[in-house]
Amino acid sequence: MSALERFAVLEDRLNPVLVKEVRQALRSKQFRGAFGLTLVIGLIVAVMIVLGGADSAAFDPIGPKFFTGIFGCLAVAVIGFVPMAAFNAMGAEFDENTYDMLVLSHMRPRQIMLGKLLAAGVQALLYFSVFGFFSVFAFLLGGVDLALVLVCLPLLAIVSLGLSSVALGLSSLSRKRFVRVGLMVLLSAGLVFSVIGAISMQVGASQFGLDFTSPEVQASISGVLVVSVVFGSLFFVIGTSRLAHEEENRSTGLRVLGFLLVLLGLGWGAWVHDQLGQVEPFIFVSILALVAATILGAFFATERETLGRRVSVTLPNHKLLRLFALPWLPGGGRGALWLLGVDVSVLLFVYWRLSTTSLSGFLVTSEPKGRQVILVVVCYSLIYVLLPSALCSNRSKSPKWTVVARVGIPALLILGTFVPAVLGFMFDVMPLANGRHFGNPFWVGFNVLEESLDTRPLYVAAALVVLLQVPRIVRAVREVWMAPQHDPA
Q: 3-state DSSP helix/strand/coil percent for the chain, to nearest 5?
């Protein structure tokens, strides 16, 4: 078998979307222009830095400046151009009406997303293959730590892959072009800040050096990895669910991944706590995990209450297995149960962690402060998500109730924060006018840290909201329990 025949066999085994996207990218004017422009600019920057620093190279090595210039060009390419190309590649499927052909080819949404993500990785790999030579040359010029090069380049590749996944997920959110234009603007702003952040971190590392045995450096590097994995995997699953049929299970994957990502965040926060010996990063990460769970729970708890036709026939026949799978199945009531379970899990983990670990830092000058902050965040998470979702539960399968509930969640947060302040200003009640009320979660959170505050009314309100969910949770359990069994064959 010749080499071409072996390549043809390998090509047949690859993801068809990967093959299609790579071929289109290599033939497109967009990729050729971006690749050529980046290469020319990188070459010009390299020559200018070498010629400009040649006279002083004896006492001021030009290696760090050279690596910074090359790294900047590479960052613009793999963090800026590649994710934007992935965003346009997904949007082109809807604009050119070719997505229906992908569906008719019996390809699963996961295969489509994976093929496009791998295609973005191939494009990034082409940039790395070109600029890798410049990076090695920067080390030969002197003044550049080889460990820094070996850390910065793989880290940049992981960030590029994560941002490409985010771009694909954003582009799959809507098939309407004007909506994707707004999403493109949002993505562009995020990519610009990501490029600036990557270059700034590299400049700081080159100028001051990195001690990779330092806990702070290890925490920073692992933080970049965790953020890239969290956002990349989350938007990958979001894109997969958006590409699936409406009657298919579009929620379970997100629920399972969301729970795993919360566990990942808590685990990383606990590790950082052990490394740095301060409790503040752990509390901060725990709050971020709760906020992320709240955002996901806002979508889960506002889904239509009933199971889709394609989902009900896939339920396990064993009743206990159905109960175990209950929080992970689609449905607004089951989404409320998911959010309640995740919030309680985070709360219990934080309480266990703070009670079994030696603590230091501002939050533990009075030991209950860290725990109370988490409890307050849990209460607001339940109130602001579960109250609108219970009042506007979508039992009629009408999309308008889902929209009303999802709009009502941020509306309740805004109204609860600012309406009492406006009333206080109108009736000359200064505490309300200054935002000192339980409708303002930010004031309550900071006030718990700074001084004593009776938070029992907040706990009572959260308990009442949870009790309000009992009827819909019971209906959700009954629907899964009473669903007809199916023949495994």
A: 80, 0, 20
DSSP calls for 190-232 = HHHHHHHHHHHHHHHHHHH---TTSHHHHHHHHHHHHHHHHHH
Question: pLDDT tens, 391-430?
Answer: 887 666 677 878 888 888 999 889 988 888 888 888 888 8
* SS3 sequence of 359-427: CCCHHHCCCHHHHHHHHHHHHHHHHHHHHHHHHCCECCCCHHHHHHHHHHHHHHHHHHHHHHHHHHHHC
Task: Give the DSSP letter string of 421-486.
Answer: HHHHHHTT-HHHHTT-STT-HHHHHHHHHHS----HHHHHHHHHHHHHTHHHHHHHHHHHHHSPP-
* Token pair of 215 as six digits: 């806990």
In single-letter form, the type of residue at position 340 comes to L
Phi/psi-derived region of residue 97, left when phi > 0, alpha when psi is between -120 and 50, beta in every other case: left
CA 79 vs CA 38, 253, 430: distances in Å:
12, 27, 48
Which residue from 290, 304, 291 is spatially nearest to 251, judged by alpha carbons? 304
Strand ranges inside 204-353, DSSP E: none
CA nearest neighbour of 378 among 256, 461, 300, 303: 461
Q: Cα separation of 39 and 130, whole Å?
A: 8
- Domain ranges, ordered by start, for the chain: 13-244, 246-484
Run of H or E residues at 488: none
Nearest to 361 by CA among 373, 353, 352, 370: 370
CA distance 159 to 78: 9
Question: Closest Cα to residue 348, out of 453, 468, 266?
Answer: 266
Neighbours of 253 (CB within 10 A): 18
Residue 474 CB coordination number (10 Å): 11
pTM of this prediction exceeds 0.90: no
Map residue 304 onto helix, strand or coil.
strand
- Summarised one tens digit per residue, pLDDT across range 149-183 is 888 899 999 999 999 999 999 998 888 888 888 99
Instruction: Please provide residue 304's backbone torsions phi and psi, each rounded to the nearest 5 degrees.
Output: -65, 150
How many whole angstroms separate alpha carbon 369 and alpha carbon 3?
A: 67
Cβ–Cβ under 8 Å, residues 444 and 456: no
Which residue, among 92, 249, 218, has the nearest Cα to 151 in the 3D structure? 218
Q: Give the CA angle between residues 307, 309, 310 to the nearest 5°.
A: 105
What is each CA distance from 386 to 119, 240, 306, 396, 417, in whole angstroms?
Answer: 40, 26, 17, 18, 17
Reference 382, options 443, 262, 257, 467; nearest CA is 467
Token reading at 171: 């582009």
Closest listed residue to residue 75, CA positions, set 119, 44, 41, 50: 41
